[in-house]
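Quick start: read one record
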Amino acid sequence: MSVEANDRPGLTDAYATRVRADLERVDAEIVEVQARLKALAVDRALLSKLWENIFGESGPMSPVTESGPAEAPRSPLPEEASAPENGSGAGERRRPGGRRRGPLVRDVVLEFLREATEPVSVRDVHVALRSSPIAPPGKVVVRNTLESLVAKGVARRCRDGQSVRYSVEGAQEPQTES
């Protein structure tokens, strides 16, 4: 079977048309993928900044090369951030990576209540916490902490006129004159 000379130009034109259409399709897909990559890069930058603000360290790095990601995606929390071992670090907050953040507000408030010789107000505790080893919490946090201690039966709430005072459970309440 022989191919006639006038059949070739038709076949060449058909291939040329097909290849041109495929090239245009591929170029359009490349433009779409590049736009998607730019959007993903912006998302990654925002997420990395959020990670840094929350955990105080740069986010998990996964450099992208032309062949794909360099490593498998990591868990959002480092392994060191898992639950503490029994008895270790009780009453202290830990950041991922095992760094200690200091005592809990509850523990410092409870210590202050135990050292107090008489029932104290929310304001008294709030002022005392300004010189404590923790960042000074707001009055609402102090009140909620005190109420939480009362609900757990650790502290006692007593009324003094319109104000409320707190003491450690078992401490002597002041005698009010009637």
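Confidence is low (pLDDT under 50) at residues 70-88, 172-178.
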